[in-house]
Amino acid sequence: MSGDRLRLVQLVRLADSGLVRVAWSATWAEYQVRATGPGGRLVGEYFTDNKADALATAERMLADLADRAGIPA
Q: Is the pLDDT confidence value at 30 over 50?
């Protein structure tokens, strides 16, 4: 997926604890969900062709980042 353009679908930044990004790749016809922690460290990555699944996964990743940072949901 490295050579194609990704279209940003959703981006959520959690204070200084990280961010979760959902992007669409028309080339690969799939969504990429990526969670990064402080300093851009990759925490998790998930690929799916289903938008609802991608957004639900992003929500779970965001909750996990919040839990790691001690931020109440």
A: yes
Q: What are 37-45's contacts with CB under 8 Å, separation 24+?
A: 37/65, 37/68, 43/18
Q: Specify the 3-state DSSP secondary structure of 65.
A: helix
The reported pTM is 0.87
Q: What is the CA radius of gyration of the chain?
A: 12
Distance (Å, whole) CA 46 – CA 22: 9
Tally of CB atoms within 10 A around 49: 10
Q: Please tell me the distance from the alpha carbon of residue 73 to that of residue 8, in angstroms, as a whole number.
A: 24
How many C-beta atoms surround the C-beta of residue 18 within 10 A? 24
Q: Mean pLDDT highest for which of 5-9, 12-16, 45-49? A: 45-49
